[in-house]
Amino acid sequence: MSTNHKVQAISPAKVLVTGAAGFIGSHLSHRLLAAGHDVIGLDNLNDYYDVSLKEARLERLTGKSGFRFIKMDVADRAGMEQLFAEEQFDQVVHLAAQAGVRYSLQNPHAYIDSNIVGFTNILEGCRHNPIKHLVYASSSSVYGANESMPFSVHDNVDHPISLYAATKKANELMAHTYSHLYGLPTTGLRFFTVYGPWGRPDMAYFLFARAILAGDTIDVFNHGKMRRDFTYIDDVVEGVTRVLAHPAEANPDWNGKAPDPGSSRAPWRVYNIGNARPVELGDFIAAIEKALGMEAKKNYIAMQPGDVQATYADVADLMRDMDYRPATVIDKGVQQFVDWYREYYQC
Fold first, then answer.
1. Which residues of 194-210 are buried (b: 16+ CB within 10 A; e: fewer)?
2. Strands 186-191, 133-139: pairing kind
3. Widest CA span of the chain, in angstroms?
4. Residues 6+ apart with CB under 8 A from 9
5. 186: nearest Cα among 199, 205, 200, 173
6. How many Å apart are CA 240 and CA 93, to the nearest integer?
């Protein structure tokens, strides 16, 4: 055991946010800065989607007191070792990852490099430096073939149906070994379909808005009958900041003969962050149409490989432990996204 990680989180803190030019990372960085923390934002600015949008998110952060940006890939082992040694972070929020379920079908190696190799470098940086809490992005995708609703962190999640999901499950397992071996408090957050202003252009709601405004036809998978636990970005950031302030602790009641998948006798936890009110895809599209004041041309098609029929977050643990309360209803959240979209793209 190299480092004692029993010290509680401090405030204000020096926080590393990886994926800081990303959707969640940029919003979270604003929130942490507003709370008085110093934020080191790291991103490799890859071209998985429009780099200019990532740069625009960064521009809103650049110049803010307490923020510095470092362009680096988390898979850069030597660079990450040097970064951790020099900066001596208090806490780490690891959001950098190769995202997307369908993209993993065509580019599997990108997921191994970023989500497995990169996460190893994060864990090693935390292990060898006095990090008080590592919070990292997992995904609702880990529930895979599980059909028990709502999805609970106490469910078994050993049947992923995409490589992306498998890498996120692997992250949770890797974090557990470091929590067990080195006493590193780690908390994994299973995000459920995050949406809102400054979102990701590869996400369905973004594609829908663009196509509707252009008069193009949208593809509606599974004939619009899929259900998703759409979660507004402000609610997600609220959950992340609450979790960050409470380093994971061991569960004294954990029993190896009847192991609870959501906790451990090590300082390791996983939580769902969702709205806990799943919405049918067709209804979500209707909310976008209403916000835009335009009707979509729809092409109804079958569900795609790697997709799941429904997602529905059980957030009882997060509500109990962090007093988390998702507050944004779909109509309000979609309207705020559409207002931003029209302003940003001048349409």
1. bbbbbbbeebbbbebbe
2. parallel
3. 60
4. 90, 91, 132, 133, 244, 245, 246, 247
5. 173
6. 9
Strands 227-228 and 279-280: antiparallel
Instruction: State if pTM tops 0.85.
Output: yes
User: Is 103 designated active site?
Assistant: no
Q: Which of 216, 192, 188, 218 is nearest to 300 (CA)?
A: 218
**Chain centroid, CA 149 distance in Å:** 21
pLDDT, tens digit, 9 for 90 and up, residues 9-64: 446 799 999 999 999 999 999 999 999 999 999 999 999 899 999 999 999 999 89
Residue-level pLDDT at 262: 96
Mean residue pLDDT of the chain comes to 93
Q: What is the mean predicted confidence (pLDDT) over 79-90?
A: 98
Return all residues near 320 (Cβ < 8 A) that are at least 6 apart: none
Catalytic residue among 49, 111, 164, 232: 164
